[in-house]
């Protein structure tokens, strides 16, 4: 038997369990049925929420359980499940994203009488991006007549199983419950006891060790302290208490922390975990920390960090992957609501990808991009930075690089972002499925003659794997944060996913301090000009026309190569006269030809350096 320890000395393993789902699926009722401790942000204090019976903000509560025999080897005396009750209604889905980053296990609550609904699907997308553990809770089973209850639950379980086959949660467990038998008339406690809760707690217990192992894996490297604040309130004579969850690192009473959005440093006076005093905290812990001389009105939600570790920026270079449930076009120069850290801001997105190999078909480019994105995975199983280790599962690809044998971690991470490399600018961000479908329908076009081959050389479309985000207003968050870009302005009554793409910030840019931070990205578009030979001067020299306007400064094009329809390569020596004509020299000569001789000038133009208008061949 374990020794009896004083409450303050108990070693507690905290597991954060997110409760997500569509409006009125019974999330808050489930949290009430499970909870024994209510935190200061618990179960939505918003008066409108109580009146309407829906959750308008993140709510936190908890319950504790003894360590079972099969987990006796873990160095803990008690397991605490912190329940993060997230809103599911359409207009506030972005609040879910702020909570998703602190979740170890996700419980997706589904009304067994209705099945998957719009916000259920969006919460499932968030889960794919942010966690690897999912429990499906089939709630409101008490609303089904008892005679046919078992049959209807079985049918819904099979139906949902088919839906989850298309996700990384294909083997997820489904638990039928009635969190509030008889239905919720209001949010006050009481009423008939919940049913099925014991089975649900048992399923949560099965996931404790996996959550603990993932947390240990994340602690192996040195992590800076980061704390997500969800509530702030004053205590007379003590100071201001910030409640929230430790996202990374470790901190102790007496250490200094920074409130990066306010640019303030404070010393920690004391800490409590659900009313129990503690001397330190680490990743995954839920607690309140007290600091002195802070106006609680200045901060309701946000971040607390180790001093000078969280930047403020207004642009970012990111890994980007389209969410496959989003059916609308995702194009460069479109605006999105970007949720990063605990902030949501408008941003303009532009996409780019790796330069296709010489002679590669577009189909090959898509396969290469898929391997790269797997190597730059941003999900739970081993969060990867631009220089990290590969082999984690992406929310979109749903497979691991190592499992598929497509590429080694070294090959994948060698393609991390660099200002020194060139990239292909992409007008669209596509899923791999969209690209393959388009290719199957159109086929890979092959040029029939040499002139056409020369004209399209290097024009294999790039597949977007990178993104530049330029924010309308500055954001403050860790420079390697996950983000999700959404179109919240879409019609909420349409049964469609508004979450558009997601990824991880690779490089944070403050454009005031780094004005060339976006400009120096070498993402190019291929440009082509076409002209004809007006007359042949001699075996090596021709005069061309039709490629430039008469006001064009031809000195910008001097020394650039042109090619004839037969593949002969010459260089532009300069202008000829003042009508836009130009002289071309062919070092190996130009053969005698009948009819019109076409000339093609192809060059790259770097998209982000709009002022320089630099052309490169």
Concise description?
With 617 residues, the chain is α+β, with helices and mostly antiparallel strands. 18% of the residues lie in helices and 34% in strands.
How is this structure best described in words?
The chain is an alpha+beta fold and 617 residues long. It has twelve helices and 30 strands. Strands 17, 18, 19, 20, 21, 22, 23, 24, 25, 26, 27, 28, 29 and 30 form a 14-stranded mixed β-sheet that branches. It has a seven-stranded mixed β-sheet with strand order 2-3-4-1-5-6-7, sandwiched between helices. Strands 8, 9, 11, 12, 13, 15 and 16 form a seven-stranded antiparallel β-sheet that branches. Strand 26 (561-564) and strand 27 (569-576) form a beta hairpin. Helix 3 packs parallel to helix 4 (118-130) and helix 8 packs antiparallel against helix 11. The longest helix is centred in the first third of the chain and has 16 residues, at 149-164. The radius of gyration is 29 Å and the shape is elongated. 41% of the residues are buried. Residues 1-8, 38-58, 88-93, 378-414 and 444-458 have low confidence and may be disordered.
Proportion of strand residues: 25-35%
Shape: elongated
Instruction: Give the biggest sheet.
Output: 14 strands, mixed
Distance between the termini: 75 Å
Tell me the number of strands.
30
Structural class: alpha+beta
DSSP helix count? 12
- Indicate the percent of residues in helices: 10-25%
Low-pLDDT stretches: 1-8, 38-58, 88-93, 378-414, 444-458
Estimated radius of gyration: 29 Å
Overall pLDDT: 77
